[in-house]
Design goal:
By secondary structure, the chain is an all-beta fold. It has strands at about 1-5, 10, 15-25, 35, 40-45, 55, 65-70, 75-80, 85-95, 95, 100-105.
Length: about 110
Amino acid sequence: VQLVESGGGPVQPGGSLTLSCQASGFHFESYNLSWFLGKGARWVASITSANGELYADSVKGRFAVSRDNAKNIIYLQMNNLKPEDTGRYFCSVADSYGQGTQVTVSA
C-alpha cells in the first residue's frame, strides 16, 4: 500500500484548500478511505467504496470528501478554514497512512 498526500500549505482563515491522496498497491475501488488530522489522531472524514461520505462534526458543512476510482485518488475540499484546522493531514486505508501534508491556517 502506498498513499501520497499533497495540496497542503498556508492559508488565511476563511480560505480554501483541496488536498489529494494518490493511492496504489491495493484494489482502490473496493476500499473505504479516510482523512485524519494527525496520524491516526483525529478523524476528519471518510468516503466509502459506495461513495458514502462521513464527516466529523467539526468539519461538517465545510469539508467535502470525494474519490476518483479511475485515477485512484481521494480528495478533501476544505472551505471556510479555521485556525483549529491547522495540522498535518493524512489519508488512510485500513491501518496504512501516507506521509501527510501540512495545512496551516493563520492570519
